[in-house]
Amino acid sequence: MATARSQAEIAPVAVLDSITKLGPAHRGALVVAGSHGGLYCGWVAASAGLRGVVLNDAGVGLDGAGIACLAQLDTIGMAAATVDYRSARIGEGHDMLQRGRVSHVNATAAALGCAAGADVAACLALLRAASMPSGTLPPITESRVVLSDGVGAGVKVIGIDSASLIGTQDRDCIVVTGSHGGLLGGEPASAIRQPCVAAAFNDAGGGADGAGYSRLPVLDAMGIPAVTVSHMSARIGDARSSWATGLVSAANVRAQEAGITAGMTLQAAVRCLAGRKARERKGLR
After folding, report:
1. How far apart are CA 206 and CA 185, in angstroms?
2. Where are the domains of the chain?
3. H or E, element range at 220
């Protein structure tokens, strides 16, 4: 019979562009995912029963939100590390595996020898010795909220902590997500799950190759105004934070045509977008 250590040494390693792509087959695995290291992503990793996880630090950002999963996962004994957002593209797991440099680790990973400055492959070699987590995290039940019942043309503003939760019910809404503004795996099809009136994302610091903004031009081509908010103005993974304190860091052409400029509050930007929608409904430009 295999010992606990030998089972750990042969633990599978999976590489994903988003932590939301986890499934039953990943239980017990080490996972490198292109997602940010915020609380929501930590909860997803824990719920999937991973042995350990490596995520992107998303520039760390307001209140350390981009690495908040590290302390969170320590509470259940899951080894976790984040990759420096400047070293590899957020939203691209394979780029993180190939180019990523570790920026932060939790105490569980540090006890295995994993440390800032290491490359991801070296970190994974050490994490193979990790024990399976021994606890569970409380459920996250409030990942979706109505931020405004109607602005401008009566358009609802919906806050969603993860863009993976956008559904058909959001097509007539302005969607404020806590997610980063990067394409998953660089694929244009990943820009948004459903066409909506407009969308907002966190810029995750921009990062390597400007990946944190890469959804914006794709959404332009789809006719969807979109913006990012600065990672230092709002907590990544937290739509409510974006709505409360988010400042626009970048806007695509469609959003700029509505009067949105860098530096304005997200709430002001949403009013611009709603005003444009109202004019469109009246047949005006």
Report:
1. 16
2. 4-127, 144-281
3. helix 215-221
